[in-house]
Amino acid sequence: QEQEAYTHIFDDRVYVFTPNGDVLDFPKGATPLDFAYSIHTDIGHRCRGAKVNDVIVPLNYQLQMGDKVVVLTAKEPHPSRDWLSVQKAYLVTPRAKAKVHHWFRVQDYDMNKVAGAELFDKECKRGKEKLHLTATVLEQLHFQNKDDLFAVLGRGDMSINTVINAILAERHGEEAPQIQSSPAEKKRVIKQTNANPGIEISGISNLLTHLSRCCRPVPGDSIMGYVTLGHGVSIHRSDCVNVIDKTTLNPDRLIEVNWDSNAQLQYSVDFTISAHNTPEVLSHLTAALATDKIPVQTLASQVDKKKDLLIINLTVEIAPTSSLSKVMSRIGQLADVIEIKRK
Length: 343
Known about the structure:
15 strands, disordered N terminus, alpha+beta, 4-stranded mixed beta sheet
């Protein structure tokens, strides 16, 4: 039974080797291209092929347990839009998809910036009043500079009327009107107060973010962002089932995010612990947590009578100075603990 339970844990994961012998794990169905992006963003962007167990394979080959993967790269980065095709299945991991999306957003920036500037100039010439993009207007529309605003205009993620209304409202000393925008525009124009200082968003500053409750990511986890409508960016673990489902429906809302290494925050982590049903197990657990100065938010237990096990649901606060792996290792080494898993 223990062997069956152990095998079940790895049913949805594949473990593969790098050329140096390091082991990396991926969700089932992951490809050499996912592997390349997990090594480094630049390796993914320059990927042109792959060898698996010394045999050249397609980039949408599904990695198998124990494969040894070598990435073949070009000198210059050049991702393909085909990599984002759901049907062709070149990419499975949300983080890799987010990096490809980000590449194309950056590449199209200059072209969209010119188109947006032309659209604004055309509107200025057509109106009776002279229009000026002041620092106040840019701040109200949540842009750091004119180029960023023009790029969004040129991409069609914001209407020119939104910009004109903000300029006129500022000129007459009024508060900027509430922006009525399309879903694409809402994706870019998000209230930016109370931004989460623990998250860095590539290419964008001060966006409102929140850690998702479904997977509760903590520093050290591979993460990605999903742009919600009107509620900022939801931060998920890259292997979160919810964000993988959302990726299939709305891949354009994926955004590359990283942990802010300078942030000093605490994060809640949920664990499920299986242990032998002994009188001492709970006291040993709480004593270990107290010794390591790990705050406990919730602790609840119930007995599995069929297996004669104690199932413990535990939520603790993890500080940046604490290593999640060390906490799990500390609990896992307790005498009566059989297994500890993150929810």
